[in-house]
Amino acid sequence: MAISMSVKLLVRQRADFLCEYCHSSEEISAARFEIDHIQPRSRGGSDSVDNLALACQRCNAHHYNFIQGKDPETLNNVDLFHPRQQVWNQHFIWSQDGCKVSGVTEIGRATVQRLDLNDEVRGDGEIMRSRLAWVKAGWHPPVSDLRQLI
Ligand SMILES: [Zn+2]
Hints:
The protein has 5 helices and 6 strands, in the order H-E-E-H-E-E-E-E-H-H-H.
């Protein structure tokens, strides 16, 4: 069943128009973000708002139908970050220059790698160049991510 426009708007507003994985801003992106199923539909995930997250095209594509990733430090397979059940700031942190996101937990590190949040797997660094421009413009990282530094 298609997700209604009202539910899509709810998901966007709830996410404060940020990708709930990489925290890119929909407002400064060329393409509208997508409605991601945290538990993929192909694995029985529902269209319930509790299973939906706002995701940029990159994260949604990398998320695909994965629910787990491997932490590169411990080599444990762990569940990916769950935006409805977990708090972003407890699993991820920005580099000093605001361009690179790092995981600070097994879940965070596995998610950084599985969703290739820094274009390290693909290797072209495209998102890092975008973030650098956003930092220069004062649009990134989101203010909500900097609270812990103030
Ligand atoms: Zn994203």
